[in-house]
Amino acid sequence: MIIYGTALLAVCHLLGIFIGDLLGQALGVKTNVGGVGIAMLLLILACLYMHRTGKLPKLTELGVEYWGAMYIPVVVAMAAQQDMVSALRGGPVALLAAVAAVAVCAVVIALINRMEGPAPETPSEPVVLANPLLADAE
Question: Is residue 21 within 8 Å of residue 32, measured between CB atoms?
Fold first, then answer.
């Protein structure tokens, strides 16, 4: 069942890359525009839909979570590298836009954190969570 989560991630990735390429062509640029972001949105929407309809077994969900955890940091690092190279070649306007985007994100995150109430007290003893992979072994 974990392999189905991997397959779902792969299908969403391929669709996202395809849609990103189409979007790039529609905008008149010869590059993928937002393909990875589109893939992540498709994965989230597919998981939500399958979870609501009861078609997402726990093991498949674990497969999606595992590869999602592996996939996102790698893709973000690759995208950040490409954006940085483009920004350095694009001149001061691109660098200014990047710095402004980071500043706006930092301000929004700070505002969201301040709007939240104080964190609830956590128990001092560690909580043992059930492992769904070991449920059949008992």
Answer: yes
pLDDT tens for residues 33-47?
888 788 888 888 888
Q: What share of the chain is helix, strand, coil (3-state, %, to 5)?
A: 80, 0, 20
- The structure's pTM equals 0.54
79 burial via Cβ count (<10 Å: 0-12, 13-18, 19+): middle
Q: pLDDT tens digits for 73-87?
A: 766 666 666 666 666
Which pairs from 44-49 meet CB under 8 Å and 24+ separation? 46/8, 46/12, 47/8
Cα 34–Cα 91–Cα 19 angle in degrees, nearest 5 = 10
Cβ atoms within 10 Å of 61's Cβ, excluding its own: 19
Which burial class, exposed, middle or buried, applies to 101 when counting CB atoms under 10 A from its CB (0-12, 13-18, 19+)? exposed
